[in-house]
Amino acid sequence: MVHLLIVDDEIHAVEGIRSGVEWQKLGITSVFTAYNAKQAQEVFDRERVDIMLCDIEMPQATGLELAEWVRNNSPKTETIFLTCHADFKYAKQALQLGSLDYILKPIPFKELEKVILKAVEKIDKDSELIEFSQYGRFWFQHQPMLIERFWLDIITQTIPSNAEAVGRAAADRNIPYAAEMIFVPILISVQRWHKQLTLRDEKILEYALKNTAEEVLFGSRRDGQIISTGNGRLLAILSASSHTDFELTLRSLCEHYIDMCRQYFYCDLSCYIGDKVHGHGMFEMVNRLQLMEKNNVAYNNKVILSFELKQHPPANRLPDMELWGVMLKEGKGENVLEEAACYFERQMRIDALDANLLHQFYQNFQQMLYHMLQTKGIQAHQLFSDSISLELAANAIRTVTDTRSWMNHAVRKAMGYISAIEQSQSVIERVKHYIKLNIAKDLSREDIANYVFLNPDYLTRIFKKETGMAVSDYLFYERLKLAKELLAKTDMSIGAVASHIGYANFSHFSRMFKKYTNLNPNEYRQLHQ
């Protein structure tokens, strides 16, 4: 909408212009009038005036004086002078006051329409420049969902990474965009939550993180976009500033944001600040930030700028874990954990720890631990099948903090269970108790071994050493003993007795019972009741 003001001390001149121009065709939505400078100033106080048509010769204050006042109080207003004087002095002064044009009376309406159209086009162009300046404030407020989709398509390369394709995609979606616009991406990554969260809780907190990022990073300017990219990651895209302290300001804002998130949202997170890029350079820069995030395995709650990304030497810096394996076999689990902690501290001091090294360390340590468990007859997949072990293992290679949490849990659980096994009496008692509780089930030797996290052959060896019989034999005799009691002391049917001790097949139960008692179940009942 463009608003226009006609200022002339001659009423018939004002009305002539008002009725002689096709305002709607020119894009003018409102036409105001004033007959002197004071009335014009009152209009400016009440309304927005985009174009002023102003006579130069007026009583009280001239049009030139009014134009000077307008330049100071409404600098975006375009002024067009109307005058009877062809004096160059007036024209020169009008130009010095920033007027758009200078038209002589009597006014030819076609010429006036051309000049007004020129003013409207200038206003539109200036409006676009304003949108693309001041950090692109309007750009980010315009159609936020479309703009978010636009950026997602760029960083997934649905829109190719070249200036022409990006500009064409913006135009197709009616998104205000200029190839000259410059942006800074910030990748925000949640490293861990400090409390147990349901999926719903996590979604609510991620929404809170997003809103807080908008408040802290953009403030009242709203000159950016926050995009959720999934897996606890947000991408903030800000319109870049040319101020020399821009990076320092961003770092300070990100540090404040991290502090707030730690305090209120129970999480550790880090921020990775990219370089200034054009829209078509966003894909490459975001990829670089993702690499920074992947390789930041050493630090929590940190702000890292893109130029701080370091190339780590390819030298093999893994510790020799053979000694650690011997220490674990000897029950020195805490010593192994101390050695590992010292190793990580040394690598962090020289900034030599990255995702690849951490992953290799994890694989080697896990292999060493599982091999040691195997020599003890313990099945790792059973020992670590609980939800806590599975969750810690799933996050183990994200950061050093997560790796150490997994190591502490795994080593201490393994050492505790090895200690229990070495006191084999307690394991045997647990097996016997388990059989007693589950005697009605179709138990196998493997089921029983899994219950105590042992290899079936290893369990059979220690069980036979302790009891003089194999696990399967012990299970059978316990079932036989219970069947005898039920037949002698209850009126349960023989089929019910068979089912109660884990035999689904009545005939098989009868055959096995007679084999070991020389009586079939019915004969045994008649003899003992």
UniProtKB/TrEMBL annotation:
<keyword id="KW-0804">Transcription</keyword>
<dbReference type="GO" id="GO:0043565">
    <property type="term" value="F:sequence-specific DNA binding"/>
</dbReference>
<protein>
    <submittedName>
        <fullName>YesN4</fullName>
    </submittedName>
</protein>
<dbReference type="Pfam" id="PF00072">
    <property type="entry name" value="Response_reg"/>
</dbReference>
<dbReference type="InterPro" id="IPR018062">
    <property type="entry name" value="HTH_AraC-typ_CS"/>
</dbReference>
<dbReference type="InterPro" id="IPR009057">
    <property type="entry name" value="Homeodomain-like_sf"/>
</dbReference>
<dbReference type="GO" id="GO:0000160">
    <property type="term" value="P:phosphorelay signal transduction system"/>
</dbReference>
<dbReference type="InterPro" id="IPR018060">
    <property type="entry name" value="HTH_AraC"/>
</dbReference>
<dbReference type="InterPro" id="IPR001789">
    <property type="entry name" value="Sig_transdc_resp-reg_receiver"/>
</dbReference>
<feature type="modified residue" description="4-aspartylphosphate">
    <location>
        <position position="55"/>
    </location>
</feature>
<dbReference type="Pfam" id="PF12833">
    <property type="entry name" value="HTH_18"/>
</dbReference>
<feature type="domain" description="Response regulatory">
    <location>
        <begin position="3"/>
        <end position="120"/>
    </location>
</feature>
<keyword id="KW-0597">Phosphoprotein</keyword>
<dbReference type="InterPro" id="IPR020449">
    <property type="entry name" value="Tscrpt_reg_AraC-type_HTH"/>
</dbReference>
<keyword id="KW-0805">Transcription regulation</keyword>
<dbReference type="GO" id="GO:0003700">
    <property type="term" value="F:DNA-binding transcription factor activity"/>
</dbReference>
<dbReference type="InterPro" id="IPR011006">
    <property type="entry name" value="CheY-like_superfamily"/>
</dbReference>
<keyword id="KW-0238">DNA-binding</keyword>
<feature type="domain" description="HTH araC/xylS-type">
    <location>
        <begin position="429"/>
        <end position="527"/>
    </location>
</feature>
